[in-house]
Every structure is written in C-alpha cells, then in structure tokens.
Design goal:
Elements: H1 4-14, H2 26-40, E1 48-54, E2 57-63, E3 70-74, H3 88-98, E4 101-105, H4 117-129, E5 133-137, H5 139-150, E6 157-161, H6 172-176, H7 185-196, E7 220-227, H8 231-243, E8 248-257, H9 268-286
Helix pairs in contact: 3-9, 4-5
Length: 287
C-alpha cells in the first residue's frame, strides 16, 4: 500500500492527459519535469548558496555553517531531463543534515550530449571538488555508482537513491510496475536509448552492475522505492557490493514510488529519507 501523500501525487500524475511518457518530445518532457519540481519539491531550507564551475562543469554549491567534508551530488532525470534546480530542495536539506558542503552538479544531458558525457562531467567535478562522498538519485545514482567504482580508496561513502544500475531493463520489478507508478518501463527504455545513442549498454561505465570487480569501492547507503521499476536492480547492486566485501546499508522506503526523493514539499517520506541520508553522510565523515 502506498503512503497516502505519495498516492495522492500518483493519482494526480495518472490523471494527466497526453501521450505516453516514451512519446513525449524531449523539450516537453523537460518542461514537465521543471513544473513537477516547482509543485512538489519546494525551495528547501535556508543555507548559503553559490554557483560555481568545477573543472568546467557548472555546479550549485551549498555551504552550511562550520561545514565538514564535501559531497558531489548528481540529479536524476534519465540523463535527459532535470538540472541542478531539480534537486535544489533536497540538496539544501542534505547539506544541513550532513553538515557537509554539497555540490549539485549540472552535468551535460542527452540526447545533445550522449554517453559518456554525463559521466565525464560527474567524474571531473568530483575530482575538482575532492569530494569525500558521491550521491545521486536515479540516473544520478548511476553516475555516483560509476564514479565510486573509478575512485576506489578516495571516497568515504556513496549514497545511491533508487539508482539505475543495468541497461537490461528485464527484472521482475520492470514487469510488476511497468505502468501506473510514475516512471514506466517504456519510459526508462527510452531514456537508455537517448543516453546510449548506440553505445554498448553492457559496459560497466553505463551499467555499474556489470562491473566484475567491486572490491575496494566506497561503502554504500542505498535507498530504494518500494513500487519502482528500478527496485530489483538496486537490490542486485547492493548484493553485488556485499559479495565484494563492501559495507552496505540498504533502506527499503515502504509506500513510495520512483521520484519521491525530490518531493520535499509534498511528502513527509521524502523529508525523512533526506534527513536519514544526511545523517549517514555525517556519520561517514566523522568516522
């Protein structure tokens, strides 16, 4: 059973008229994502903010008082929609809850800049920031996971919020939640197509679950939405990390759907999840 606030949001989403998500033009999808952000995410709490560039990559920086440590954050949106403003509220909350500087990275988007452009930006920004932690939701979780694989021994934690981990799009959760739960199976397949633009999706840089050797990757804090096409691949990645000896905290967010993490204004579950993730970051930085 879905959380009451999440159910109300989902009812509103399902009540919208228009073409199937996989058929919406990219610019229209981006506008819809921005509209959803304005309605459901809010502005977030007050914290000192500045815009900057990290190795040529635009980022919005959040600096709480007496900050300790740094977090590179990558927004979701299927590598196609969204921007730093999409996760403004949650990054503000994460900065205050963790006590760390958070850099909300505005990486290049597909289809204008297909794979591996987003990954190149994420990696460059993380290195320039000298981040202690990487974090991201959905496609941003994918980028955070791959960056963590590349920067073994350099990070204290990776925070993955319902991450995309495999291009196979064939898990049981893809069938169980294919339609009617926000992110559809067909919509996610289209995101993959736009992102890869013909590239090999089985490469670990695209599908971190396909990485054979995960030893030495940073400890992981993973949050999964209960009713989400990405749920099973997130669980699979958590198990793969554990088999490699990587410490993993896996949080199953009951009653939630894909996207809930950003809905800080509209969902108590989202606010709680961000606070808990921030506490995990704070603990990792203080260890």
């Amino acid at each position: 059973m879905l959380d009451a606030e999440i159910q109300a949001i989902l009812d509103a989403i399902n009540g919208l008229r228009g073409p199937a998500p996989e058929n919406v033009p990219v610019e229209q999808a981006r506008a819809a994502h921005d509209s959803e952000t304005a309605q459901l995410a809010g502005e977030g709490p007050e914290v000192a903010t500045e815009d900057a560039e990290l190795a040529g990559v635009r980022a919005r920086i959040y600096r709480p008082e007496n900050a300790r440590g740094t977090v590179a954050y990558f927004h979701g949106g299927g590598w196609v929609v969204g921007n730093a403003a999409s996760t403004e509220a949650v990054c503000r909350t994460l900065a205050l809850a963790s006590g760390a500087v958070v850099a909300n990275v505005d990486y290049r988007l597909a289809p204008e800049h297909p794979f591996p452009a987003a990954l190149e930006d994420a990696l460059a920004a993380t290195r320039a920031l000298r981040a202690d932690v990487v974090a991201g939701d959905s496609a941003g979780g994918n980028l955070a996971a791959v960056v963590a694989q590349k920067l073994r021994g350099e990070l204290k934690l990776q925070v993955l919020i319902y991450p995309v981990t495999d291009a196979g799009v064939n898990t049981p959760s893809y069938r169980e939640f294919a339609e009617g739960y926000g992110l559809t199976a067909a919509g996610m397949k289209r995101f993959w197509e736009l992102y890869l633009d013909g590239a090999d999706g089985t490469l670990p840089d695209a599908s971190p679950l396909r990485q054979d050797d995960l030893a030495g990757v940073a400890p992981a804090y993973i949050v999964l939405a209960e009713s989400d096409v990405l749920r099973d691949e997130g669980k699979a990645y958590a198990k793969a990390l554990e088999r490699a000896g990587v410490p993993v905290t896996l949080v199953d967010a009951a009653g939630t759907i894909h996207g809930f993490w950003r809905w800080q204004r509209a969902s108590a579950a989202a606010r709680s999840a961000a606070q808990e993730a921030g506490a995990a970051v704070r603990a990792a930085l203080e260890a």
